[in-house]
Design goal:
441 residues, alpha/beta, Rossmann fold, 6-stranded mixed β-sheet
Length: 441
């Protein structure tokens, strides 16, 4: 559906030119990766000292350091972390149980199978900076351990020039075998490429800033990644039954992630739309994160007015937003109507912040339209679905061998054809026309 700009109650500001900034980020990231590739630990230490003022003897925490960090966290906080991690673990276990190995007999004696094998080693990146996203420890590490990953190497930036106790506690309780206090591109590069002291991993998961996201993009192929991620997004679908105050609060809850975070409202009610805009203006007066949220709302906020919910679903699908929240009289209708979203939140009782922090589904989700072709991080991201084949019946092998010979020669693959020929002849060399005659060379 084409969006009618004349029916927008609020338009985003003119798009900010980002190509220059993006190219500068890409160049910086490429240089850091090249240096870590060439110089290993020395480069990691140099960039950590340069960007974070942090260069300890070892970035990896020992047992005593982990114990000290955990003991510095209030018991009530540890209990909350354990509770939330149980929610994540329970849902991840249900996801894992839905995936099963199979074996089928497709012809007499022809067995085809499928197994779900976990990667051996995973890297988990837990951001720090403006917001220490402790919840990312649950989402990355707990999910990996449920999948059966043997080694999880976690990394998180230093906080105020030291070890961040809460993030370390969350990573430890989640089950990470290694915890490195290390952030930024240098952390991602070290996990992907390996250094003298950090073994490489098979996949890296977790959110991060523009530099971390670009590092994952550049290293993809040498290492697996969960997904390409950009600024957090929220889109709310509302009808006249929605409370404009709730709409406003929930939009700002995600706008505070960063100044480039889109916050979109699509509504069938002009009253709700205008009242939500008014509430946002009032809430921004004393919201502690208003310096960030107000920029996101000014530059990337939009309110669309549509005639019907059918149109609302169509417009929502054009965004393919990371988070879609449905505040309508019949929110479950969206399960059948929407096609493109990272995660869906149904009804006023269910806010996006629950998904970010406590409810148990994963908050590492696709952004920038990637929901059109991928879902978010889940237990299956740490699994490789592999196949195997076995033919126990000689007649079936011979029949497939004859077919293989014909199909291979159709494509001029003589070597392939001959592999089929020897099965078709059941290893009777007299039946193989291309075999040299006895006594010839």
């Amino acid at each position: 559906m084409t969006v009618d700009p004349q029916r927008m109650l609020k338009r985003p500001a003119d798009p900010v030119e980002t190509s220059i900034r993006d190219s500068e980020v890409a160049r910086t990231v490429a240089q850091v990766i090249a240096d870590v590739r060439a110089d290993g630990d020395a480069a990691v230490r140099h960039y950590s000292a340069t960007f974070d003022g942090w260069a300890p003897d070892s970035f990896r925490l020992g047992p005593a350091q982990i114990e000290e960090a955990v003991s510095a966290v209030p018991t009530s906080v540890l209990d909350d972390i354990r509770f939330v991690q149980k929610q994540v673990r329970d849902f991840a276990q249900a996801q894992r149980a839905s995936l099963r190995d199979i074996e089928v007999e497709t012809r007499p004696g022809v067995f085809l199978g499928q197994k779900n094998l976990p990667v051996v080693a995973a890297g988990a990146y837990v951001p720090g900076g403006r917001y220490p996203l402790t919840a990312s420890a649950h989402m990355t590490v707990v999910t990996a351990k449920v999948a059966g990953v043997e080694r999880v190497a976690a990394t998180t930036p230093p906080s105020q020039g030291g070890i961040p106790p809460v993030s370390v506690a969350a990573l430890h309780l989640a089950g990470a075998e290694e915890i490195h206090v290390l952030g930024g591109v240098q952390a991602v590069a070290a996990l992907a490429l390996g250094t003298e002291t950090i073994e490489p991993v098979d996949i890296i998961a977790g959110p991060g800033n523009a530099y971390v996201a670009e590092a994952k993009r550049q290293l993809f192929g040498e290492v697996g990644i969960d997904l390409f991620a950009g600024p957090t997004e929220v889109l709310i679908i509302a009808d006249d039954s929605a409370d404009p105050w709730v709409v406003a609060v929930d939009l700002l809850s995600q706008a505070e992630h960063g100044p480039e975070s889109p916050a979109i409202l699509i509504t069938t009610s002009e009253r709700v739309g205008k009242a939500a805009i008014d509430w946002i203006d009032r809430l921004l007066v004393d919201l502690p994160t208003a310096p960030v949220a107000s920029l996101a709302w000014r530059d990337h906020g939009a309110v669309h007015l549509v005639d019907t919910l059918d149109q609302a679903y169509e417009v929502a699908d054009t965004y393919a937003s990371e988070h879609v929240q449905v505040l309508t009289e019949r929110p479950r209708e969206a399960l059948d109507r929407l096609r493109h979203y990272g995660a869906l939140f149904l009804g006023e009782n269910t806010c996006v912040s629950f998904g970010d922090k406590v409810i148990g589904t994963n908050h590492v989700l696709p952004t920038r339209g990637a929901a059109r072709y991928t879902g978010g991080l889940w237990v299956g991201k740490y699994l490789r679905t592999v196949t195997y084949q076995e033919i126990r019946d000689a007649d079936s092998s011979a029949a497939l061998g004859e077919l293989c010979g014909r199909m291979s020669r159709l494509e001029n693959f003589e070597g392939h054809a001959r592999s089929g020929d020897i099965r078709a002849a059941r290893f009777d060399t007299a039946g193989i026309p291309w075999l040299p005659a006895p006594g010839t060379s």
